[in-house]
Amino acid sequence: MAFAFLFPGQGSQSLKMMDGFADLPVVQHTFEEASDTLSLDLWAMLQADSADAINATVNTQPIMLAAGYAAYLAWQELNGKQPALVAGHSLGEYTALVAAGALPFAEAVKLVRLRAEAMQAAVPAGVGAMAAILGLADEDIRAACAEAAQGEVAEAVNFNSPGQVVIAGHKAAVERAMALCKARGAKRALPLPVSVPSHCALMRPAAERLGEALKDVHLNAPAIPVLHNADVASYGDAAQIRDALTRQLYMPVRWTETIQQLAADGVTLMAECGPGKVLAGLAKRIDGNVKCLALTDRAALEAAREQLA
């Protein structure tokens, strides 16, 4: 039975989220490698009393990369079956590339830290915003954003599932778009507590900085096909992968289409690899025929291994 691994991005982090994997040495080793690479103790951040450190995007991105990859290595150590395809939501695309053997882990850790710094530097605090629009068709959201822009940026940036789309851009333009979405029949329009308006045109300066850094990163042809966010396509050429990662910063995350493409390829069993169940929930809403397991701890890994044996 062909199955795919899905790797989560920012928003799935929580304190002590890796405790269910803590008895697996490979998980500790993975976090140690990431921590040594950055001269930061990422595991200690997860054990803290406050979530402030893990919610700072410069820490969140390497933490989620390490978490997803550690869970994947734990799956391999437990003799889990190799996935036919992998994909990651936003930041999770980097984890997917590491799991596929295209991007060395230590290089990825440094790259996502730089990515986070570039994103934060691209838009001053308070200038940008993001909001979730629930219960409105994609075309209506796009139309509302176009009307709300008024010379600023307001764009649909995360197509997470039918009826769940995130918009981003200048704060005032996003607020106008929220009101227009409500007027068009949206059930809810919720501002998101983020410091960076990801995946919109405001991220182009960050993409340029990331693109320069990617020139110095050695990429291999993926051993497992990776579906990229920007194109819902997989690439074997290093230049194409660099381009897809650069464009990903200012182009929408086409997650609904990603799950639909996996299903069209005959992959109806998937597993969210890492802490949290966000992607598992989205997959079920996108396609009722898809089953997505959530590999949130060692017990879940072992249960999934038995199911796929």
From TrEMBL:
Transmembrane feature ranges: none
SMART domains: PKS_AT
Reaction(s) catalysed by this chain's protein: holo-[ACP] + malonyl-CoA = malonyl-[ACP] + CoA
EC numbers on record: 2.3.1.39
Superkingdom per UniProt: Bacteria
Domain Malonyl-CoA:ACP transacylase (MAT): 6-300
Keyword field: Acyltransferase, Transferase
NCBIfam families named in the record: fabD (TIGR00128)
Family: Belongs to the fabD family.
Protein name as it appears in the record: Malonyl CoA-acyl carrier protein transacylase
Lineage: Bacteria, Pseudomonadati, Pseudomonadota, Betaproteobacteria, Neisseriales
